[in-house]
Structure formats: structure tokens, C-alpha cells
Design brief:
Layout (H helix, E strand, L loop, with lengths): L2 H7 L5 E4 L9 E5 L8 H4 L2 E3 L7 H7 L2 E7 L7 H13 L1 E12 L1 H9 L6 H7 L9 H10 L12 H11 L2 E6 L19 E8 L6
Parallel strand pairs: 1-2, 1-4, 2-3, 4-5
Antiparallel strand pairs: 5-7, 6-7
Protein name: Methyltransferase family protein
Keywords: Methyltransferase, Transferase
GO molecular function: methyltransferase activity
């Protein structure tokens, strides 16, 4: 079973998509900083306008507690220090045993692409032409990856070790695992929404101490 089915079977059905942008996946509540007025009445009922890096106590109370917090190509838009605070805030709205699921563009994939002239990521090369000419050298494509577009820059780059390190620093997560595309829990697009580029990492909120 994929991750969504495993969570549903376990009765863990309260899911929050952080940094959803304008993509509203079924089954989720949503958190972003888009103007709420641009959403339908139905979506406004499930949409929370807040900055995950700067959640207030009131934000946490209004959000409640979730079984899954998902960030798909969101975490890389925070710098290193803010990224730690984002994860701490995610822990604050997760049930003990709840899941955090983070997908980011994989630094290792892009380093390998740089060394291979970006021939292995043709779709990325096409997308990068929003900023650079068709005949730009591979280093220019790598620079687009590391900085992204001017209006939504990538502020940090992660491989598995770096993302696991950030999760470990919170002291709030356990079972930190790289979710490969071939893993039984992997689903497109639930876990990997850009399969050729994704690094997808899964972890569980630590259980509260007993006794």
C-alpha cells in the first residue's frame, strides 16, 4: 500500500499541505500565504493563511493537530535557520507518531546533472529557459537550480544527509528515512510530485514519554 492508504487504514486522515501554492490536493487542509480572497468558499474552509516559519500560538490553536504534514517543493524556499524553525513548528502541529513528508529538489541529482551537461533533466533545461538562453552552459542551469526564479528563490539546497540533519536537530522526529521511488510507500504525486528530481524524506513525530 502507498503512504496515503497506510495512513487512511490507520485512521490517520487529518492531513495538512504546507506551501500548497495553487495546487489543492484532495484530502488535505492547506497552509500558505496566498490571499484567501482568491479561493472558492469550499477551499477557504480548509485553507489557513499563515507563515509556517512564524506560527503564533493562535495559529497553532486554529490549525489544531494533524496526522500528516506534507511539504512538496516548499522547504528549499527557506534558509537554513528558518528551515529549522519550520520543522519545529511542523512538530508542534503533529500528533505523536504523526508523519512529516518533505520533497525537495535533490542536490545530488543536480550535481550529477551538472557534470553530465544537464542532459539527464531535459524538462528542467526547458523550464530554465525562462531565465537563461538555450545555449547557456551547464553551470547556468545549476545556478537556476540553486537560486530558482527571482520571485521565489531557492534559499537552501539539500541532499539526504542535509535534510536528515535538519530533522534530527529539532529532536522531535524519529524513523527518518529516504523514500525511494521504488519504496512500497512511494506514490506519485502524493509523495513524489517531481519523480525525476525529488528527494523525498519521511519521518515520524516522536511519541510523548510515558510513565
Amino acid at each position: 500500500m502507498g503512504l496515503s492508504q497506510v495512513l487512511t487504514a490507520a485512521g490517520q486522515t487529518r492531513w495538512l499541505d504546507v506551501g500548497c501554492g495553487a495546487e489543492f490536493s484532495p484530502g488535505f487542509d492547506y497552509l500558505d500565504i496566498l490571499p484567501v480572497g482568491t479561493l472558492s468558499d469550499e477551499l477557504q474552509g480548509r485553507y489557513h493563511r499563515a507563515d509556517i516559519a512564524n506560527l503564533t500560538e493562535r495559529d497553532v490553536e486554529q490549525l489544531g493537530i494533524y496526522d500528516l504534514v506534507r511539504m512538496q517543493h516548499t522547504f528549499e524556499h527557506f534558509g537554513f535557520e528558518d528551515g529549522l524553525r519550520v520543522l519545529q513548528n511542523c512538530a508542534a502541529i503533529l500528533n505523536p507518531g504523526g508523519v512529516i513528508l518533505i520533497s525537495v529538489p535533490d542536490l545530488v541529482t543536480h550535481v550529477q546533472a551538472l557534470l553530465n551537461g544537464y542532459e539527464g533533466l531535459p524538462w528542467f533545461k526547458e523550464w530554465a529557459h525562462n531565465r537563461i538562453p538555450d545555449d547557456a552552459p551547464p553551470s547556468a542551469y545549476f545556478s537556476v537550480f540553486t537560486h530558482s526564479l527571482a520571485y521565489e528563490p531557492h534559499l537552501w539546497c539539500y541532499d539526504y544527509d542535509g535534510l536528515a540533519y535538519q530533522l534530527e536537530r529539532t529532536k522531535q522526529f524519529t524513523a527518518i528515512t529516504k523514500l525511494e521511488r521504488t519504496d512500497l510507500l512511494a506514490e506519485v504525486p502524493f509523495t513524489h510530485n517531481r519523480p525525476d528530481e525529488d528527494l523525498c524524506v519521511y519521518a515520524r513525530r516522536i511519541q510523548a514519554p510515558t510513565g
